[in-house]
Amino acid sequence: MNRQFLKPFIAAFVCIPAISFAQNSPFQPASTIQANTNLVVVDVVVTDTQRNPIHKLSRPDFTVLENGQPQAIKSFEEHASNPAAPQLPPLPKLPPGTFTNFSVAPANGALNVLLLDTMNTPMTAQSTVRDQMIKYLKDSPPGTRMAIFGLTSRLLLLQGFTSDPEVLRAALNGKKGLPKGSTVMSDPVNGDSPGADDPMMDMAQDAIGDDPSMAQVVANLQQFEAETQSLQLQLRARFTLDAFNQLGRYLSTLPGRKNLIWFSGSFPIDILPDPDLNPANYHQDPFSVMASSADEFRETTELLSRSQVSVYPIDARGLMVDPMLNAINSGSKYARPATASNPGSAYAKDQAKFFQQTADEHGTMEEMAKATGGEAFVNTNGLKEAVEKAVAVGSNFYTLAYTPTNQKWNGDYRKIHVDLARPGLSLAYRRGYYGDDPNSPPKHGEPPADVKGQPPAYNALRAAMTRGGPDPTEIIFVASIRPSSAAPEPDVAPGNKAAARTKGPYQRFTVELGIDTHDLNCPANSDGSHTCTLGAMILVYDADGNALNSTGGGFRANIPASAFPSLLQNGLHFHQDVSVPVKGEYFLRIGVHDDTTNKLGAVELPVAAVSKLPPLTAPKPNPTAK
């Protein structure tokens, strides 16, 4: 990926007038025409009975079926791990105060993504995961390209892609690492396994004894506990799905295969459809259990599928025994005799619940890995070895591509089946995709409103603007930020919306954006002109991730036919002022959104990197002076 436009963009900041976008103006959808290929890309990992990669297969060895119909393989390529992989070229050197969300990615081979899920993992397992990963990085193969993400109640980018193990180790040990305990688990220390003591329930049971008149009190307490756990599970499922959607967007613009190694102590949701369901039944909602998230489920599935993401779930808890035998449990509930309010054996019920819950979670992991061409690792304390295996297997694969014989794009789920001429070998590959018309814009409406008492509805722009998250690169842009003046101001700039807790004085900054027009949808009109519809947002965060100020809006620009070639070369430009409190540590997050295609771009920077730059109103030096 070579973005030569960055150089003219930087030069264009001083030679092209900026277009100011209208404050708070609604987006005006425009018709869209996209030129996309119908090619379906499938990465296939081939291993022997010992899970060792098989090399030197050829195109005739493979047969591809889609919904049972043979497909002609248009392209074929083998990829093997390369310890001597060249270093990535450096980004173009940008002037002071200039930033971009463009990232350099390798054009070949696999990328590895390490996801540390502290939201679904108890503290007792988190320290083990970190220790095992640090040991892995000490012995990781040279040239292994990896990025590290964290999942709390939001997705965090801890370290971008690098092959330097020292940099990766520093990210795991850094002060800006993940919090230790989950905010949405009933027991963030030991997890939510059945059998953990509930002090309130134990006290109630001991006080009530076998009094039949108090049975309703116990039932009410049990109902309260069940509802609380249900809400926590919904929140975890909601945040997990949002994070995978955001991660899919981030990875969608990077070429090649990505191995997503997901460490978690619980898998509350299966983010992929069941490939064994009858495609004829897909006119019904396959995500009826999460009806409010059906659109996001489908979008996330497509993002991961088309982005060549293979998921390798690893159970961070390792080998597990019955939690009822854990020393953290007092055991009083199991010694208590059966009563009218507590019939049956508490131990037997918790044991059955534990086995069922564990089987469901491991089943989710297995299905997720199978559907994406990855592998699940459960009931193992060798977490370091699991990562080694995932990286080794996921770095040796074959890429097949075909044009579907079925050109009726009706949105149905299409199964992919790959056969191999040589017997006795195992294949791992993605098992299907949705047959949406690649030449039609994505179908998305207004984001649903948040419902009181329910997890917040998904909003792609809101997720992209999360403090500390990855910078989406579906739309590439360059941002130049400079102080507007040297003197502080008592109020925020016009169009800014400061939170109630935000206090002045403020320093005003001018943000100049240059956007790559190739990433936008600017359809041609009947007179040859082009219409670009775009939205932008700027958020001011404090060091704790609290949003203190925001500004943004949308604009619709009609570009004459004679000016459009220059626009393609130099990009679309506009500016906006934003105010930041003078005292304190703050961050700016700048985002761009194409409403007609739902593409996003964002970049984040510390205000300290630009606060000391000369203001725009500073007097220019004498041109005759040397």
Please explain how this structure is put together:
The structure is a single chain. Helix 2 packs antiparallel against helix 3 (165-173), helix 4 runs antiparallel to helix 5 and helix 5 runs parallel beside helix 6 (294-306). The protein folds into three domains: 6-34 and 459-609, Immunoglobulins (Immunoglobulin-like); 36-80 and 397-440; 106-395, 3-Layer(aba) Sandwich (Rossmann fold), CATH 3.40.50. The strands form five sheets. Strands 1, 17, 19, 20, 22 and 23 form a six-stranded antiparallel sheet that branches. It has a five-stranded mixed sheet with strand order 9-8-7-10-11, sandwiched between helices. It has eleven helices and 23 strands. The longest helix is centred in the middle third of the chain and has 38 residues, at 215-252. By secondary structure, the protein is of the alpha+beta class. It is globular. Strand 22 and strand 23 (599-606) form a beta hairpin.
Which structural traits does this protein have?
single chain; 626 residues; alpha+beta; Immunoglobulin-like; Rossmann fold; 3 domains; six-stranded antiparallel sheet; 11 helices; disordered C terminus
Q: How many structural domains are formed by the residues?
A: 3
Number-wise, the strands total 23
Strand content: 15-25%
- Tell me the Rg in angstroms: 27 Å
Number of helices: 11
Give the class-level CATH name of the largest domain: Alpha Beta
Shape: globular
Structural class: alpha+beta
Low-pLDDT runs: 9-36, 274-291, 618-626
Task: Label the CATH architecture of the largest domain.
Answer: 3-Layer(aba) Sandwich
Largest sheet: 6 strands, antiparallel
Q: What is the rounded distance between the termini?
A: 40 Å
CATH topology of the largest domain: Rossmann fold
Q: On the 0-100 scale, what is the average pLDDT?
A: 76
> Helical proportion?
10-25%
